[in-house]
Amino acid sequence: MEVKQQLEQELDHLAESFQKLRQAQAKFRDCSETVKKASKAQNEDKSMLVPLTSSLYVPGKMTDVTTFMVDVGTGYYVEKQADDAIKFFDKKVATLTKNLTDLEGVVNSKTGNLRAVEDTLKRKVAEQQQQQQQAPATASA
Questions:
Q1: Does 119 map to a domain?
Q2: pLDDT grade for 135, boundaries at 50, 70 and 90
Q3: Domain total for the chain?
Q4: Does residue 55 form part of some domain?
Q5: Are 85 and 69 contacting, i.e. CB atoms less than 8 angstroms apart?
Q6: What is the pLDDT of residue 55?
Q7: What is the pLDDT of residues 44-95, one digit of tens each?
Q8: pLDDT score, position 115
Q9: Whole-model pTM?
Q10: 35: domain range?
């Protein structure tokens, strides 16, 4: 029973990790698409709302659509040309896609292990019940 519980906990954790990786992948994919759209020449001098917090914005204007400040992690931002920013985000998406594929293999393996443990437990319970049913029959004979 402990093995079964441990496998279930591991599967829950892996499913949560899988979901977080999918969210990160979607975020980077959105970033790549946004850079592609925003870097078009017709967007120069367009008005936009600039987020200060998740619910606070100020009016702004796109003055340079060729360079972007890219969050490269742990609070560091790097200025990148549009093509380099797109490559950066596409590389992140590719890495996460590979990680998701690898994680899916682990999840499938753990799921198989869990099924094997459940099958073994069911078989043992059935054997035990069969022995208990046979024991009174032989005792009364």
A1: no
A2: confident
A3: 1
A4: yes
A5: no
A6: 96
A7: 999 999 999 999 999 999 999 999 999 999 999 999 999 999 999 999 999 9
A8: 93
A9: 0.78
A10: 1-107
Q: Which of 85, 6, 53, 82 is nearest to 93 (CA)?
A: 85
| Cβ-Cβ contacts under 8 Å for 44 (sequence gap 6 or more) | 62, 63, 64, 65
CA distance to 17, 21, 23, 107, 127, per residue, from 12 (Å): 9, 14, 17, 10, 30
- What's the Cα-to-Cα distance from 28 to each of 20, 54, 95, 99, rounded to whole Å? 12, 18, 11, 14
Q: Is residue 125 part of a domain?
A: no
Whichever domain contains 44, its CATH number is 1.10.287.370
Look at 20-29, 50-59, 99-108, 131-140 and tell me which has the smallest mean pLDDT: 131-140
H, E, C per residue of the chain: CHHHHHHHHHHHHHHHHHHHHHHHHHHHHHHHHHHHHHCCHHHCCCEEEEEEECCEEEEEECCCCCEEEEEEECCEEEEEEHHHHHHHHHHHHHHHHHHHHHHHHHHHHHHHHHHHHHHHHHHHHHHHHHHHHHHHHHHHC
The reply to whether 138 falls in a domain is no
22-37 average pLDDT score: 97
